[in-house]
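Review form for a predicted model. The reviewer records the input and the model, then writes brief findings.
Reviewer: anonymous (R2)
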Amino acid sequence: MQKLERRDTYTPTDASQVRGNCDLVIKHGRCDQVLQSLKTLSNNSDVNQHQHTDGLNVNVYVLHQDGTPLMPCTPAKARHLLKQKKAKVVSRKPFTIQLLWNSEKNTQPIKLGIDSGYNKIGFSATMDKRELISGEVKLRDNISKLIAERAMYRRKKRNKLWYRPARFLNRKKNKDWLAPSIKHKLDSHIRLVEKIKKLLPITETIIEIANFDIQKIKNPDIEDKQYQQGEQLGFWNVREYVLYRDNHTCQHCFGKKKDSILEVHHINGKSEGATDRPEELMTVCKTCHEEHHAGIDIIPKKEIKQFKAETFMTSIRWKLVNSLGCNHTYGYITKSRRIELKLPKSHVNDAFVIAGGTIQERCRPFVAKQMRRNNRCLQLNRKGFKPSIRRQHYSLQPNDIVKYNDKEYCVKGVHCKGQCVIILDSIKNISVTTKKIELIVYGKGMELLYWLKPMVSLGGVV
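Model under review:
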């Protein structure tokens, strides 16, 4: 039974139902003291009850009966629709429902902003009063490595049959050909926009692009014919230039070891993405070079500025705009608006500004994770040997969503030759037999998951 407060003879002035009040305690400005002294919350129906609105909003995305996206709803509304059998769940990453009756298609203008990038993509969709979806996509960076691995296996397979004709001599690249790693990142931008358009009735899309002058970044004073006269002008190759630049002196011992044989050394290894640019090479003597590779005297590494992100954006900017058929903006415009709104630098906040965001109510951001759909690896070697030989892929893979004891869990891995599965619990990992597991959805492709860490919004950290 609810406990009545000690005095209930007044109607507060902060209630929206009335404009006046006759209680002396509140008239004298001691309303806060009275309310704070109560042990229980006010049960007066005239008092505006406090709503639990801590944190950012969570939206449930709604599809029409024919699959057309509609305006999102709250989780409570979606729960009632599912309970009344008026909707069904069609996706869980993100959570999306589809109506089971022929409803009206009333929508509002929604603007989608995309902060394009080489490593991460920010996205945000806003309307007049609130933000409907936002998040960040982490792009894959192992495409080049997988392509090289596939080429190695293919070359080995074809070399076993010597009578096979060569195919690398009669191939021609298309005019719009892109490297596989760049094409994957371009396709990820397009795939993200198409995925959001399946969730929300987007009316306008704006994407941020940029054009970088790499030579101007390296040398701010470059001008006129200096663009055609590179730093290696007059040298036969990059080795001669590096030796001349370093004055034919070992840059590690500076001639103390008195070794006259000089070699050109990569500061960072090829496995770390090193190239043959002069900035990534240095002159060392043969003695220092041999001691370095023997592990006796390691030559220290240093961080070298890479221009992969700038080159990527310069090469795909118009292909991205033309493929999506959208409007575009530039980084300096986004930066100025973000500073005016006093927002910290992040891909999500940049996308919010690109979408025309100002004082809209923010939503809880997603983090999109990309998982390979085709995994050629049957097992991972542990401790240098194979503990068992697998002959087939297991039906359950990491990041799959399963149901166990009427609760949903995320799969971490499979062991015992596929008989048991490890699921992620809030406290510890649980090993369960596959007979008690029910698959809900596979965790492949681009998945939208909620961030666990706080997000910075217009009002600060929430």
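Findings: Residues 10 and 22 are 7 Å apart (CA to CA).
Further findings: Confidence is low (pLDDT under 50) at residues 8-54, 452-462.
Recommendation: see findings above.
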